[in-house]
């Protein structure tokens, strides 16, 4: 049974990835700092459902403290652990250094020490507010609009350096606005759904006109699993490649909200506000490289994905949050 190590195993994307890998016969070793119950029902669900991993370990700031046996026999590392969130990185950038930079360096060291291919989470935020849409992996990304974006750009440069120095196989996935069941409570889909269900105002920054390549969680998981399976193939072996993983039809925040109202069966109270610092006007993924290298493209369109999320959220809101 092939062994895969997944960091951020109890996070939004990580928990879904672990579940999918196990269902396909992989032996999954999960690592996550949140190995005790968190504050939201989604976090509690992830911890209680640790059967998504064959083994689960808590991770402090030093990944080197983990037992050496964890790494033995592994075939690759899927590194999804990070401090996420564009807006918080504007107000509290210092919170991002250790989890996003120091920890990433330590993962790179482990990969080099044990000769493990690395698949890691980057972000569409590296593109900044670049008017060259759709965003393609080869364009310049040296003008980040937030410190979070800067840390993700640093990750890409660090991975490239390890490939140049040591021949590390690394695949960086630039995720575009991922949403879905058991998502992050600080992101718009969850915030919107909770406020709608509570009869509170939904805050629409940039007047809801910002465009996003919304990407449903199942599509993201499928891309990651494909990378796990194809990591030793050309052109990945001993190289560093970047792939956009995002919806190929950008749609506005207002469009997302309209779909969510339909899914929940409740009309939102709307409050229109200016754009916030760190936000970009549009994200729009060019996915031709992902199509070519891993045969991936999104399958779930916005209305269908939001419908699934809304149905799930309404059920769990009535059970756990109302």
CATH superfamily of the largest domain: NAD(P)-binding Rossmann-like Domain
Assigned CATH class of the largest domain: Alpha Beta
Q: Which structural class matches the secondary elements?
A: alpha/beta
Strand order in space, largest sheet = 3-2-1-4-5-6-11
Q: Biggest β-sheet, characterized?
A: 7 strands, parallel
Mean pLDDT: 90
Radius of gyration: 19 Å
Number of domains: 2
Count of distinct strands: 13
Using the coordinates shown, work out and report the CATH topology of the largest domain: Rossmann fold
Helicity, as a percent range: 25-40%
CATH architecture descriptor of the largest domain: 3-Layer(aba) Sandwich
Span between termini:
43 Å
Order of helices and strands: EHEHEEHHEHEEHEEEHEEHEHH
Descriptive account of the structure:
With 322 residues, the protein is α/β, with parallel strands linked by helices. It folds into 2 domains: 3-176 and 216-245, 3-Layer(aba) Sandwich (Rossmann fold), CATH 3.40.50.720; 188-211 and 248-283 and 300-321, UDP-galactose 4-epimerase, domain 1 (Alpha-Beta Complex), CATH 3.90.25. It has helices at residues 12-23, 41-48, 86-91, 97-114, 147-166, 188-198, 217-230, 253-264, 288-294, 302-321; strands at residues 3-7, 27-32, 55-58, 74-79, 118-123, 170-175, 178-179, 201-205, 211-212, 215-216, 240-245, 251-252, 269-273. Helix 2 (41-48) links the parallel strand 2 and strand 3. The longest helix has 20 residues, at 147-166. It starts with a strand and ends with a helix.
């Amino acid at each position: 049974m092939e062994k895969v190590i997944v960091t951020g195993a109890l996070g939004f994307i990580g928990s879904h990835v672990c579940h999918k890998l196990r269902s396909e016969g992989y032996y999954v070793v999960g690592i996550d700092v949140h190995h005790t119950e968190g504050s939201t029902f989604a976090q509690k669900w992830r911890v209680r459902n640790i059967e998504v991993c064959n083994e689960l370990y808590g991770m402090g700031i030093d990944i080197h403290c983990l037992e050496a046996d964890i790494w033995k026999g592994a075939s690759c590392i899927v590194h999804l652990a990070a401090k996420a969130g564009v807006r918080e990185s504007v107000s509290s950038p210092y919170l991002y250094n250790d989890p996003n930079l120091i920890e990433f360096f330590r993962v790179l060291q482990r990969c080099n020490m044990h000769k493990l291919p690395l698949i890691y989470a980057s972000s569409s935020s590296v593109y900044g507010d670049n008017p060259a849409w759709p965003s393609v992996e080869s364009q310049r990304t040296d003008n980040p609009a937030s410190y979070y974006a800067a840390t993700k750009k640093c990750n890409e440069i660090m991975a490239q350096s390890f490939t140049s120095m040591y021949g590390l196989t690394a695949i960086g996935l630039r995720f575009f606005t991922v949403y879905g069941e058991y998502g992050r409570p600080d992101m718009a889909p969850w915030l919107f759904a909770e406020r709608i269900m509570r009869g509170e105002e939904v805050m629409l920054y940039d007047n809801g006109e910002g465009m996003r390549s919304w990407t449903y969680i199942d599509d993201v998981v499928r891309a990651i699993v494909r990378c796990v399976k194809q990591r030793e193939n050309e052109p990945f072996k001993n190289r560093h490649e970047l792939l956009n993983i995002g919806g190929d039809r950008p749609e506005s925040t207002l469009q997302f909200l309209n779909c969510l109202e339909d899914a929940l069966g409740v009309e939102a109270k709307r409050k229109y506000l200016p754009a916030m610092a760190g936000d970009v006007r549009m994200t729009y993924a060019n996915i031709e490289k992902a199509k070519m290298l891993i045969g991936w493209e999104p399958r779930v369109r916005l209305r269908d994905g939001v419908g699934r999320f809304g149905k799930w959220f309404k059920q769990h809101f009535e059970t756990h949050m109302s």
